[in-house]
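# step 3/5: fold
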Amino acid sequence: MSDFKTMGQQFGRRSWAEPWKIKMVEPIHMITREAREKAAAEAGYNTFLLRSEDVYIDLLTDSGTSAMSDRQWAGMMMGDEAYAGSRNFYNLENAIQTYYGYKHIIPTHQGRGAEHLISQAIIKKGDYIPGNMYFTTTRLHQELAGGTFVDVIIDEAHDPTDPHLFKGNVDIDKVKDLVKKVGAENIPYVSLAGTVNMAGGQPVSMQNARELKAYCDSQGIAVYLDATRMYENAFFIQEREEGYADKSIAEILLEFCSYTDGAWMSAKKDNLVNIGGWLAVNDAKVAEQARTMVVVYEGLHTYGGMAGRDMEALAIGIAEGVQDDHVASRVRQVRYLGKLLLDWNIPIVQPVGGHAIFVDAKRFYPHIPQDQFPSQTLAAQLYLDSGVRTMERGVVSAGRNPETGEHRYPALELTRFTIPRRVYTQAHMDVVAESLKAVYDQRESTKGLKMVYEPEYLRFFQARFALLD
């Protein structure tokens, strides 16, 4: 138990501080309102198309935006850039095996590289892949491999106001119904995400993972984990699930992973690096297939698209990121922002998740229909107000039904305020909250957007919009 927990029990409420101190800073500044209006119009009101130099506080994503530690930077000076058999790969392999528990490790350039490998390795045309809510790149790779994603998350996850503490849980009855409908032989694996991004960063309980694995084993179906934000998921288990309060994040992580057959990882999140990813599996045959493909699509199986120095920073980041004080500080900063917004009755997804605040754009802009993109509208208006960059997680991210060509209309229409790790202070969170309050006060006069350009895949990255007159 950390000292902060002990003091809290002894003396009541005690303030907490980040478990690090600042050694280096990157200057930022807010450009004028006129300049922001020009930048937003040139970007087609898509925050992904803004230049970072025109952004004041960047909450677009926590992917690759973390601040690395002095030890990670020192590790980068120890990069072994040999083409084959880099010693940094073996350090990375040991770190993943130690903290996650999987046998075979294949490095990739980032998470979607690992998603591609596992999808191509084990999905055949006509397969069904159940999962606890879709994620954009994951579902696309599954579809490109010939599979069909089926949402099997519990119903509570689709309600932003439901107080369920583990809204990321799989509804195992839904999995059983799918097995009865299509046959276990047509389900290569269940796609299980730890802290479900699209649901608002909501966690999966240990009990749910244990029960899911037991059922899947009885049917000969594998369980593969999107481990991108599992450290935060482990924190919620530690905090909320009986029997885990005195277990460390590292212990909880290792047990959770034991109920899966492998994992893919965007190391740019939990693992505290600016680039990198990995695939880890227990099945030797799947590992062999993945190693064969990684040579074609990524790089040799001992670097997979990363430099040796990046693998070293990643190995160190795994050990640093799993520390209890670090994870607690990370989640508390997200909660700090969430409390500010709730105090002003701004509608957000509850309970607050581990990596971001998700504003419910349907309730924020009840007069803007979903086909006028309320989440995208909110992200644009926030940038115009203060230079704060966020992102859409609603109908734009959901894309189109590949069979009908119509927009998918998810129940959740959210704007995500994603907090990078070890980057911003509480003062930055105050600025963000006050800006959102200003936008909220003007909500009734705000109009939506129309889409004027749409790419074929993952349209939220490059789509362009125009203001509705």
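# step 4/5: annotate
The CA atoms of residues 115 and 137 lie 8 Å apart.
# step 5/5: archive (pending)
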